[in-house]
Amino acid sequence: MNPKIQEYNDNQSMDYKEICQLLAINIDRELSEAESKIWHGHPVWFLNGNPVVGYSHQKMGIRLMFWSGADFEEDQLNVIGKKFKDASIIFKSPDQIDEKKLQRWLKKSREIQWDYKNIVKRKGLLHRL
After folding, report:
1. Among 85, 88, 89, which Cα is nearest to 113's?
2. The CATH number of the domain covering residues in 3-111
3. Please, are residues 21 and 8 in contact by the beta-carbon 8 Å criterion?
4. Strand, helix or coil for residue 53
5. Out of 74, 79, 102, 125, which could bridge 70 as a Cys pair, Cβ 3.0 to 4.6 Å?
6. 46 phi and psi, to 5 degrees?
7. Does the predicted TM-score (pTM) go above 0.85?
Protein backbone atom coordinates (compact mmCIF):
# COMPACT_ATOMS: atom_id res chain seq x y z
CA MET A 1 0.00 0.00 0.00
CA ASN A 2 1.13 3.50 -0.75
CA PRO A 3 2.69 4.84 2.51
CA LYS A 4 0.83 8.16 2.21
CA ILE A 5 -2.47 6.30 1.94
CA GLN A 6 -1.54 4.19 4.95
CA GLU A 7 -0.82 7.40 6.84
CA TYR A 8 -4.24 8.81 5.80
CA ASN A 9 -5.92 5.61 7.01
CA ASP A 10 -3.99 5.62 10.29
CA ASN A 11 -5.21 9.15 11.02
CA GLN A 12 -8.87 8.07 11.03
CA SER A 13 -10.92 7.05 14.07
CA MET A 14 -10.97 3.29 14.79
CA ASP A 15 -14.10 2.36 12.77
CA TYR A 16 -13.19 4.68 9.92
CA LYS A 17 -9.61 3.41 9.91
CA GLU A 18 -10.90 -0.14 9.44
CA ILE A 19 -13.19 0.98 6.60
CA CYS A 20 -10.31 2.78 4.89
CA GLN A 21 -8.01 -0.23 5.29
CA LEU A 22 -10.61 -2.59 3.79
CA LEU A 23 -11.20 -0.24 0.88
CA ALA A 24 -7.50 0.32 0.17
CA ILE A 25 -6.67 -3.40 0.32
CA ASN A 26 -9.52 -4.28 -2.03
CA ILE A 27 -8.76 -1.45 -4.45
CA ASP A 28 -5.05 -2.30 -4.54
CA ARG A 29 -5.88 -5.96 -5.17
CA GLU A 30 -8.44 -5.37 -7.93
CA LEU A 31 -6.68 -2.43 -9.60
CA SER A 32 -3.11 -3.64 -9.16
CA GLU A 33 -1.97 -1.70 -12.23
CA ALA A 34 -3.33 1.61 -10.89
CA GLU A 35 -1.25 4.45 -9.54
CA SER A 36 -2.39 5.54 -6.08
CA LYS A 37 -1.69 8.77 -4.25
CA ILE A 38 -3.16 11.41 -1.98
CA TRP A 39 -4.91 13.81 -4.34
CA HIS A 40 -6.80 16.88 -3.10
CA GLY A 41 -6.35 15.55 0.44
CA HIS A 42 -7.62 11.99 0.05
CA PRO A 43 -6.64 8.61 -1.46
CA VAL A 44 -7.31 8.26 -5.20
CA TRP A 45 -6.41 5.55 -7.74
CA PHE A 46 -5.62 6.41 -11.36
CA LEU A 47 -5.55 4.30 -14.52
CA ASN A 48 -3.37 5.88 -17.21
CA GLY A 49 -3.54 9.20 -15.38
CA ASN A 50 -7.34 9.16 -15.16
CA PRO A 51 -8.91 9.13 -11.66
CA VAL A 52 -11.24 6.14 -11.23
CA VAL A 53 -11.84 5.58 -7.50
CA GLY A 54 -11.10 7.21 -4.19
CA TYR A 55 -12.42 7.68 -0.70
CA SER A 56 -12.63 10.49 1.80
CA HIS A 57 -13.73 11.20 5.35
CA GLN A 58 -17.03 13.07 5.24
CA LYS A 59 -19.30 14.20 8.05
CA MET A 60 -21.61 11.19 7.50
CA GLY A 61 -18.88 8.54 7.15
CA ILE A 62 -16.30 7.35 4.63
CA ARG A 63 -17.39 8.22 1.11
CA LEU A 64 -16.24 5.81 -1.60
CA MET A 65 -16.45 7.58 -4.96
CA PHE A 66 -16.18 6.27 -8.50
CA TRP A 67 -15.46 9.04 -11.00
CA SER A 68 -17.46 7.27 -13.73
CA GLY A 69 -19.86 5.44 -11.39
CA ALA A 70 -23.05 7.04 -12.75
CA ASP A 71 -22.77 4.64 -15.70
CA PHE A 72 -22.21 1.51 -13.60
CA GLU A 73 -25.99 0.94 -13.28
CA GLU A 74 -25.64 0.07 -9.59
CA ASP A 75 -28.55 1.02 -7.33
CA GLN A 76 -26.42 1.37 -4.20
CA LEU A 77 -24.17 4.00 -5.77
CA ASN A 78 -25.69 7.48 -5.43
CA VAL A 79 -25.45 9.90 -8.35
CA ILE A 80 -25.63 13.48 -7.12
CA GLY A 81 -25.21 15.82 -10.08
CA LYS A 82 -25.66 15.68 -13.82
CA LYS A 83 -22.57 17.56 -15.03
CA PHE A 84 -20.11 14.89 -13.96
CA LYS A 85 -20.39 11.10 -14.05
CA ASP A 86 -19.44 10.30 -10.45
CA ALA A 87 -21.36 8.13 -8.02
CA SER A 88 -20.64 7.22 -4.43
CA ILE A 89 -21.64 5.34 -1.32
CA ILE A 90 -21.15 6.22 2.36
CA PHE A 91 -19.90 3.64 4.87
CA LYS A 92 -20.37 4.26 8.59
CA SER A 93 -19.01 0.90 9.78
CA PRO A 94 -16.76 -1.79 8.28
CA ASP A 95 -19.55 -4.40 8.27
CA GLN A 96 -21.46 -2.33 5.69
CA ILE A 97 -18.84 -3.16 3.05
CA ASP A 98 -19.92 -6.00 0.77
CA GLU A 99 -16.59 -7.08 -0.72
CA LYS A 100 -18.25 -8.93 -3.66
CA LYS A 101 -20.11 -5.77 -4.66
CA LEU A 102 -16.98 -3.70 -4.14
CA GLN A 103 -15.03 -6.05 -6.42
CA ARG A 104 -17.75 -5.74 -9.10
CA TRP A 105 -17.71 -1.95 -8.86
CA LEU A 106 -13.92 -1.89 -9.11
CA LYS A 107 -14.02 -4.04 -12.26
CA LYS A 108 -16.53 -1.61 -13.73
CA SER A 109 -14.23 1.31 -12.82
CA ARG A 110 -11.63 -0.20 -15.14
CA GLU A 111 -14.10 -0.93 -17.97
CA ILE A 112 -16.28 2.22 -17.80
CA GLN A 113 -14.33 5.48 -17.78
CA TRP A 114 -14.91 9.08 -18.67
CA ASP A 115 -11.85 11.18 -19.49
CA TYR A 116 -11.34 13.31 -16.39
CA LYS A 117 -7.62 13.58 -17.11
CA ASN A 118 -8.31 16.03 -19.97
CA ILE A 119 -11.37 17.83 -18.59
CA VAL A 120 -9.56 21.17 -18.24
CA LYS A 121 -8.15 20.95 -21.76
CA ARG A 122 -11.67 20.24 -23.04
CA LYS A 123 -13.11 23.16 -21.06
CA GLY A 124 -15.23 21.05 -18.72
CA LEU A 125 -16.54 18.59 -21.29
CA LEU A 126 -16.27 14.88 -20.58
CA HIS A 127 -15.67 12.25 -23.24
CA ARG A 128 -16.15 8.52 -22.74
CA LEU A 129 -12.98 6.46 -23.04
Report:
1. 85
2. 3.90.1150.200
3. no
4. strand
5. 79
6. -125, 140
7. yes
